[in-house]
Fold each of these.
Amino acid sequence: MAISKVVMPKLSEAMESGKIIKWLKREGDRVQGGDILAEVETDKADVEMEAFGAGVLRKILVPAGEKAPVGTLIAVIAEPADDISALLASAPTAVAAEAGAAGSASARNDTRSAPPAAPIPAAAPAAAPPRPTVVSPPAPTTPAVSVAVPAATGRVKASPLAKKIAAQSGVDLRLLQGSGPGGRIIRRDVEAASQRGPGPMPAVGVPAVEGPEYEDRPLTQIRAAIARQMPLSKAPVPHFYVTSEVAMDRAWALREELHALEGQPKISVNDLVVRACALTLLRHPGVNASFQGASIRVYHRAHIGIAVALEDGLITPVLRDCQAKSLAQIAVEARDLAERARTRKLRVSEISGATFSISNLGMFDVAEFSAIINPPEGAILAVGSVRRVPVVEDAGLGVGRRMMLTLSCDHRVMDGAMGARFLQDLKRLLEEPLRLLV
Amino acid sequence: MAVTTYREALNQALREEMRRDPRVFLIGEEVGLYDGAYKVTQGLLKEFGPKRVVDTPICESGFTGVGIGAAMVGLRPVVEMMTFNFSLVAIDQIVNTAAKLHYMSGGQFSVPMVIRGPGGPASQLAAQHSQSMETYFYHVPGLKVVRPTTPADAKGLLKSAIRDDNPVIFIEAETLYNVKGEVPDDPDFLIPLGQAIVRREGTDVTVIAYMGMMYRALEAAEELAKEGISVELVDPRTLRPMDTETIIGSVRKTHRAVVVEAGAGFAGMGSEIASSITEQAFDDLDAPVERVTGANAPMPYAKNLEKLKTPTKERILAAIRRVCNANGG
């Protein structure tokens, strides 16, 4: 069994270091892949860190309560017979001093600056920036944090073919352990991973999604010009806003009917909006897009971030592949995400990778508002409350339920008409809500 | 279709082309009265007479030059190198005249000439007579280079070479002259230059090899089949122009490649093929392309060392297993 390095995972784009809240395994404990090793506190959430490789937790290098920069070696998993002295010697000096138990002093001195002699199935953690070229989403069904391969730090070593197949099949290479020379991920590793499919996480069946995760469309000349000009007026993301009023009478009635059904989860207005957005985003991929400098990344799946207010801030857990989820599934998962967001028990894969976001202040009796786009997403929808208002009906005045939607759009990605058409279709879905059920 | 030797297949090609086209003639050392140092030209003096089968003094630069001049004025000479190692004393004629004349004369002259003879490692011919001479020629714009592995290829490719309007370097092998195989009798049987062939179909790895190395790779492939590794063998047959399409097509199928060549590896055919694969099929590769090449040393005379100079079956097996990650990585 190879030696597995446990490094401080990068749990968000902004994360530079993390604090070990506590170790759930002790030195000498035998661990299996998927076991929770420790709890890590980041700026965003408290996250459980899972073991990837199996073996014995031989050494803990960063004790509970201490912080460590992303990518730092914080523990070593290996078999009792494996010599980990070289690895420990290559760790930061304060740590190397403790390595005496495993290796002789002279060996330690000799190997301090040398690369680890033991086979390590991963590139050494480097100061290199996270590699953004892996296009697959972190599958929510696989361990949230790989410890065998430094998560999102250093380079993932994979054969070109393995990368291609991974991109096609949506396998996250960062979560794999390569079986090729020097730990290189090769075709059979990716194929095995994609056949393994859903892992230990609670998985509500999502139909397999065919095709690539996204495509990069070259900028047209006019788009390039807009992309150059707009930030000059409102840096860094040039916002514009499109607002529409939606008649929610039928949606409201549908929701009441659904609530009357036994054994069905409660459906909120927000769940209806999420479902409607997912369907509309598929029809308007230009809105489900992100500005990439020289190109626009158009997503073919709707990973929707749902803003959840916390006492001291805001977090946006991501509901993945909404386009493939039923209303009931969305309701159950969204509630679960929101609850865990409030108790700060979200996993890494659940707070990143949104392609579009929704911010709903309806519960605060807000009529309408404009949200700020969460880069690199291209748009965010601000949802107001459903209000009973006087409305003009065929022959006179009546009382109707109305909701204001405001879409904030990145002008580098889209124009007013595109946003308006999106809103128009969204409005139609909500006003003819049976469409949300089929 | 009859079973015949590689030597006899070459003889048939020469005879058929000389019968078909009176402009074709042979020139070289011992090609006439002695029937060829390796008996490839056996019986041709008797059939075609001394005007078309010309014995020369021991002077490669001289008779190569005669061949070039004859080709310039409309004949179709087939120049024999007793062994291709001797072409080194004619290399200025070949590289600076034969290869460039069409270009430098603005197309006024062509050099429809074949230079043929055995080359490559043989059996205790030592440092000066065992060289993989193709490496000296396939670098040169204006030359075509052929290395036929089987009797049928020897015949079909030599006939195409004689009919080609460009200078063609056609390198046979001492070790293959007695190899037998089925060879078509049809006087119009031709194998186009620049066309590779898949000699053995497989799914796990593409091995590219020619001449003696192809036979060695074939043995390795049979052995690996027992281990469950399915090897596809591609023989380029013509090294220049190279049929990369067939090679790339095979690699796209198997996702792995090993190139075997008898000559020393530095800037060799293996490097050329490996770089084509990397350029054209990078995203299809599951492992780096491996080369198995001759050692970077002159060919030793001692039999045991000679065996180690060229790629052994064991080295070919090891390389294939490595790219297939078949030894536990």
Note: Chain B has two domains: 2-183, 197-323.
Amino acid sequence: MNHVIETRGLTRRFGDFTAVDAVSIEVGRGEIFGFLGANGAGKTTAIRMLTGLLTPTEGEATVAGFDVYRQTEQIKKNIGYMSQRFSLYEDLTVRENIRFYGGVYGLRKAALRDRSADLIDRLGLRDAADTRIVTLPLGWKQKLAFSVALLHDPAIVFLDEPTAGVDPITRRQFWQQIYEAADAGVTVFVTTHYMDEAEYCDRISMMVDGRIVALGSPAELKGRYGVATMNDVFVRLARGEA
Amino acid sequence: MRRIFFGFVRKEFYHILRDRRTLAVLFGMPLIMMALFGFAIRNEIDDVPLLVVDASRDEATDGVVDRLRASGYFDVVEFGAGRRNVEAAFERGDALAALAFEPDFARRLRRGEAHVQVITDATNPNAASTVLAYTTAVLNDVQSEQALERGMIVAADGSDGTGRVVPSVRMRYNPDLESAYLFVPGLIAVILMLVCALMTSITITRERETGTMEVLLVSPLHPLQIIAGKVLPYLALSLVNVATILVLAVALFHVPVRGSLALLLAECLLFILCALSLGMLISARSRSMQTATMIALAGLLMPTVLLSGFIFPISSMPEALQLFSHLIPAKWFLIVVRGIMIRGIGLEVVWMETLVLVGMTAVFMTVAVRSFSIRLE
């Protein structure tokens, strides 16, 4: 088996409240896994456990082959992370941002220089390499943030609503980048609010009140509920009609 | 590991150097405060406009007026005017003090008793009482000399039988009553609070607001490394600030450093650590930069200015506030710094205050680190 993320009965409680309730999922290498759910459904808590920020209350989970209880350090080295806020330093230049995050992940100077030059070329940012992020268009910032998250060749990249507040064309271009990464063997674990984006995923899981209520490819799920779009699937599940 | 850390510090310096407001607070504020307190806000009196109403114009009144004029504290604005002018001059603000001699002043003085009225504009009570003290001192001088001339006072012990006591006053440590001696230590405390507590709490909450903290926490960096990387540049800059203030204080305002410079710097470092811990504590507890700024200003800076003894002496505060002032780190720091700089004492005198600061720092630091761990959970 080639599972990059594997959880069994993963649970997290805060006092009496069960934020994540016995979640069991398996995500394969190079898979684009959509992690869907309404706000407060427990997505963030689940991601925090998978990224080593939060210790589970019970259950088992491995990420990139490392245990979420005992090997959080190794997990952190082998994952990338990008949030809806793009997480770049606006007052630093493109080059300085790359250098800083590369340094945080322990890239050596020579490797960092090569990758930085390569990345700037690939994104067509050569003329903007020494301008501060704050002046860049949103789409460029997003592309750069994603590339920076992949700078240290992680096995998995977690994208927490990476396209919130971004126009449709930019979102399309961004998904192009996601496909390229997945083709290169990176597992993409993505949360989103946009149901059209859910269609782009290989498989999706739907979370309601801390539980996974549906798991499968978009085609499977649409077939199972007899609806035409992922949006309809989501509405039915969120209303508890499943 | 060291490389990662230096990368972090370099990034932090970019933030500082590229933000005009941060730069202004870090380097402009100490200079502005120094200039304000050094040149504008003063306790000494200087060239107080003094109105003299002299109905007798004899050698005795001339002597008194000459002496007041020679002191440099007074600027005699109108001489020999009628009494009615006093009220008008006060109202116009032309005079802050007035001296009215009774007629035949010299003759009455020779006879044993002469009256002079001292009137001050007490709109500013501090200035008024200082003026009063100066004039009284000058009058006493004149009186003693007169008495001596007539052989009335033989000695200060009152052996002439009149029972007069002549105090011999000495102003220790600061004979010229320079207010710089008072404000420089206080200013060090205020600026360190500003730079360490306010600026670090802002820089940490900023990372949280922009979402970069999230990414840093998911990275292999340990939370404590993140905090240290953010805090250490400010520690370095604070030391630069302390040095700047001390150099300015000595060069421009001639404030002495009578005790050990090494001890002074060590105590400053201790206070810096204390303030940094407070800054970390604030940033761990507040979600936004605004909240952090408000807490730092109202919760730290105001007490440091008002209740530490920087401007208002603690001994004249109500009991409750005196008790409260014990909780303010700057209060202990001020005792230590004033002791070392002005009185030239060493650790053998201020060990207790130093220990209090060490204790406070330890507590704040522990709570801050713990709060951070809780926030990360």
Note: The CA atoms of residues 281 and 369 of chain B lie 8 Å apart.
